[in-house]
Write a sequence for this structure.
């Protein structure tokens, strides 16, 4: 799995958590970067891999997300997201998060940095996906 895949899958899982569990999965904001939604701390942890595979465990990127304390429903959600979206390449996942009308597309401004995606916007977007809208 590449850094791009891990970053996009983390964002997607966060979106579905907001829509299904009504709470964030991540303890920090997702930002609208040039190449899509990014969790800055996770990006920093994975940056050294470039576009290559992440070939060893990384220390927890998020302050409050640790596998040993992950709620059962969060673990099940992550497993479901991985089962559905895990086989997709980083470019395919990027395409999904860049579509017209996505939270990233609404928030992104070229040459502006640190723009947070609104969790309410993310929640609505993933609720729409669940309803097939």
């Amino acid at each position: 799995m590449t850094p791009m895949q891990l970053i996009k899958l983390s964002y997607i899982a966060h979106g579905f958590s907001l829509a299904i569990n009504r709470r964030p999965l991540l303890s920090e904001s997702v930002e609208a970067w040039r190449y899509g939604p990014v969790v800055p701390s996770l990006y920093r942890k994975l940056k050294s891999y470039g576009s290559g595979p992440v070939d060893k465990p990384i220390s927890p990127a998020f302050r409050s997300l640790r596998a040993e304390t992950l709620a059962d429903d969060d673990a099940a959600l992550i497993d479901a997201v991985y089962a559905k979206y895990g086989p997709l390449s980083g470019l395919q996942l990027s395409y999904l998060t860049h579509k017209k009308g996505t939270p990233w597309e609404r928030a992104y401004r070229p040459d502006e940095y640190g723009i947070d995606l609104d969790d309410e916007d993310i929640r609505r977007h993933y609720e729409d996906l669940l309803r097939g809208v």
In short: The two ends are 29 Å apart (CA to CA). The longest strand covers residues 31-33. The mean pLDDT is 91. The helical segments are 3-20, 40-46, 72-85, 90-98, 103-107, 119-131.
